[in-house]
Write a structure and sequence with these properties.
- The chain is an alpha/beta fold.
- The chain has 15 helices and 13 strands.
- The strands form two sheets. It has a seven-stranded mixed sheet.
- Strand 10, helix 11 and strand 11 form a beta-alpha-beta unit.
- The longest helix has 17 residues.
- The radius of gyration is 20 Å and the shape is globular.
């Protein structure tokens, strides 16, 4: 059996796909599963036991007009691979999926905006509403589509990057008690300035952590190092680690504090204590998935209870989580209070269950 999946994405998006990858492998253990994606996420998936092959497309190919209107350069390459038994197109914008008409598959599933469409691209599809109206988590949406295409039940699996932690990586010497700080967000294709907590707050939080005996370790890209001068506060590893080294550093830390970003999702997938800072994005969509032990703080809302992340609560709660709030409205005092309470709690304490 041959199963293909297509999704151009950032690193955090790739982590959110791992529950689907596990589900597919569990449902069809002998299938050959091929994932077509962006080149920036390929190192994260190298050695992933749930995939047989990852085919990366360069960002130069993904960002052009042809990619936006039909995605034909990528779909032609996929079509040359022959016929698929199942093919899932997880592109969030329908117009990037028009080229799937070139692909031969026994059954196709995808995401589709509401309203009239000139052609039918998929045998089964989920309606993709405008941004902000889909309150379900992205991972849950992928699994829902899989269930619709195959009829298989959800196996209740979460994020998984065990293959990354198991592979050896050369790391710099790290202190015994360190907390990873991630002030950046976004990537080359999707800049994330609006998701970044003010850096002055990061510096003050780092100072508070150092005073309490925690060593701040700054993580991020070379661009983050240019944007966020730490001034010697803690250990600056921004731009000094590759993706797999960063994953293993996160896995060895006492906790990670980050914006809604790739490394925050990596912390969730490595079962590291994780604090996520949210403002314009909704943690019900891109926050933790089946991970009640994390700490989520939303600007103008405060601490988000695990029940709300599972889409419970009042309509007012859900509207507040959906609101596009500037990160400046997430106060340092609130973050400090919640972070230090979270760090002080035992991993087995009721607060983290």
């Amino acid at each position: 059996m041959r199963i293909g999946i297509y999704r151009t994405c950032g690193i955090g998006d790739a982590v959110q796909l791992t529950p689907l990858f596990q589900q597919i492998r569990a449902d069809f253990p002998d299938a050959k599963v091929t994932f077509f994606t962006s080149e920036n996420v390929a190192p994260l998936l190298d050695g992933c036991p749930f995939l047989d092959e990852t085919v990366p497309f360069p960002s130069s190919l993904l960002a052009g007009t042809a990619a936006e209107w039909g995605g034909f350069p990528m779909w032609r390459q996929i079509a040359r691979r022959g016929k698929w038994d199942l093919f899932l197109d997880l592109e969030p914008r329908w117009r990037r999926s028009l080229g799937i008409m070139l692909v031969r598959a026994g059954r196709k599933g995808g995401l589709q905006g509401d309203g009239w469409k000139p052609v039918r691209l998929f045998d089964e599809f989920l309606i993709q509403h405008p941004a902000g109206l889909d309150r379900g988590h992205s991972s849950a949406r992928y699994l829902e589509l899989w269930q619709k295409v195959t009829g298989n039940k959800d196996r209740r699996l979460g994020y998984n990057l065990d293959h990354v932690l198991a592979s050896p990586a050369s790391l710099p010497e790290l202190p015994a008690r360190f907390v990873c700080l991630v002030p950046g967000a976004g990537n080359a294709m999707n800049p994330g300035e609006a998701k970044r907590w003010p850096f002055t707050n990061w510096l003050r939080l780092a100072g508070q952590l150092a005073e309490a005996g925690f060593i701040p370790v700054w993580l991020g890209s070379a661009e983050d190092e240019r944007l966020f001068p730490t001034g010697g506060t803690g250990i600056n590893l921004m731009g000094r680690l590759d993706l797999r080294q960063a994953c293993q550093t996160v896995g060895k830390g006492m906790a990670l504090i980050g914006n809604d970003s790739a490394l925050f999702h990596i912390a969730l997938a490595t079962r590291t204590k994780a604090v996520g800072l949210f403002g314009p994005t909704n943690p019900q969509r891109t926050g933790p998935f089946r991970n009640p032990s994390s700490l989520i703080l939303k600007a103008r809302f405060g601490r988000v209870a695990p029940a709300l992340l599972a889409r419970h609560g009042t309509d007012a709660d859900r509207d507040a989580l959906d609101a596009c709030v500037p990160m400046q409205e997430l106060g340092l005092d609130l973050v400090s209070h919640e972070v230090f309470g979270y760090l002080a709690a035992s991993p087995n304490s009721p607060e983290l269950q």
